[in-house]
From TrEMBL:
Record bears the keyword Cytoplasm: no
Lineage start: Bacteria, Pseudomonadati, Pseudomonadota, Gammaproteobacteria, Enterobacterales
Pathway linked to the protein: Amino-acid biosynthesis; L-histidine biosynthesis; L-histidine from 5-phospho-alpha-D-ribose 1-diphosphate: step 7/9
Main EC class the enzyme belongs to: transferase
UniProt keyword list: Amino-acid biosynthesis, Aminotransferase, Histidine biosynthesis, Pyridoxal phosphate, Transferase
Organism: Limnobaculum parvum
Catalytic activity: L-histidinol phosphate + 2-oxoglutarate = 3-(imidazol-4-yl)-2-oxopropyl phosphate + L-glutamate
Name assigned to this protein: Histidinol-phosphate aminotransferase
Molecular functions (GO terms): histidinol-phosphate transaminase activity; pyridoxal phosphate binding
Superkingdom, taxonomy of origin: Bacteria
Modified residues (N6-(pyridoxal phosphate)lysine): 211
Family statement: Belongs to the class-II pyridoxal-phosphate-dependent aminotransferase family. Histidinol-phosphate aminotransferase subfamily.
Keyword Transferase on entry: yes
């Protein structure tokens, strides 16, 4: 018997999530991972690395609760929002019995986490405008414990209609949780549903420091929910999810100064996104640039494969979305520095 045969059957069949770093590439213009384009600088203040960290660093939890407008008892901090996605499945889904539902095209880790844990994956394709198909969702809810909704949605960049989210919360009341992934919400904070937590006990919100806070390498995310849900997640989370240096930097990022700096970066990036959208639309090979409420743009090209390869060969790495349902001919570009954005548009103008 080979070692591989000892592994679980679903793991042997699993295709891992193809993250930007896993896909690779060689270049100096990296616009494929929705990262903030410039590094932020912090100094470590905690030197007690001989001690285990707190399971839930008090200062980080309290500062995030203040920032999000919830009680500390409604916050759990984890290794990125990706761990939050999985914690919910581990706490609420029986492998081989329960299902999770999501609406492609959307973030790939909902699928990968469910498949890894042996939880059924159920999909309802988004409508042509990338909004929820509520009648189709209603007809598919039997046995579903978690419904993941990404808003703003990755990779399309659009917000999900808030009235549709309310209707989804109503139709799943007392039978499933609705998990709204707000990884990109800092780029359109007025669209957050966090204030709805008081009204909907089956609502869960995912957040991260990876995007607007420019800390993708830190791996720090948050799950916001009722105290009852948070207490269940605390039963299944690892004993030390955040290392001491991570908690130290996260607390600094969530200080008043850190939040103010983040908001300034967001304003600058949103302005650059608007300008990039206009410039891309003038390129002859670009057929459409889609509206976005995030730090990236999705756009369609006459020959996306050829354009992707031409940019790749120049060391400009974008994200190919052709394999996503309904996104044939589309590439996704993270908003980089002005120099990086110019490099892309200059290359496409000559394509």
């Amino acid at each position: 018997m080979s070692i591989e045969q000892l592994a679980r059957d679903n793991v042997r069949k699993l295709t891992p999530y193809q993250s930007a770093r896993r896909i690779g590439g060689n270049g100096d213009v990296w616009l494929n991972a929705n990262e903030y384009p410039e590094a932020t600088h912090y100094q470590l203040t905690q030197q007690n690395l001989n001690r285990y960290p707190e399971c839930q660093p008090v200062q980080v939890v309290q500062r995030y609760a203040t920032y999000a407008g919830v009680k500390p008892e409604q916050v759990i901090v984890s290794r990125g929002a990706d761990e939050g996605i999985e914690l919910l499945m581990r706490a609420f889904c029986e492998p081989g019995k329960d299902a999770v539902l999501y609406c492609p095209p959307t973030y790939g880790m909902y699928s990968v986490s469910a498949e890894t844990l042996g939880v059924e994956r159920r999909t309802v394709a988004s409508k042509a405008d990338w909004q929820l198909d509520l009648p189709a969702i209603a007809a598919t809810l039997e046995g579903v414990k978690l419904v993941y909704v990404c808003s703003p949605n990755n990779p399309t960049g659009n917000l999900i209609n808030p009235d549709d989210i309310r209707e989804l919360l109503a139709m799943t009341a007392e039978r499933a949780l609705v998990v709204v992934d707000e990884a990109y919400i800092e780029f359109c904070p007025e669209a957050s549903v966090v204030s709805w937590l008081r009204q909907y006990p089956n609502l869960v919100v995912l957040r991260t420091l990876s995007k607007a806070f420019a800390l993708a390498g830190l791996r720090c995310g948050f799950t916001l929910a009722s105290e009852e849900i948070i207490n269940l997640l605390l039963k299944v989370i690892a004993p030390y999810p955040l290392s001491t240096p991570v908690a130290d930097i996260a607390a600094q990022a969530l200080s008043e100064t850190g939040i103010s700096t983040m908001r300034k970066r967001v304003a600058e990036l949103n302005a650059r996104r608007s300008q990039l959208a206009l410039t891309l639309a003038k390129c002859a090979c670009v057929t459409q640039v889609y509206p976005s409420e995030t730090n990236y743009l999705l756009f369609n090209l006459t020959d996306s494969d050829k354009a992707f390869k031409a940019l790749w060969d120049k060391g400009i790495i974008l994200r190919d979305q052709n394999k996503q349902p309904g996104l044939k001919g589309c590439l996704r570009i993270s908003i980089g520095t002005q120099r990086e954005c110019d490099a892309v548009t200059d290359a496409l103008k000559n394509f």
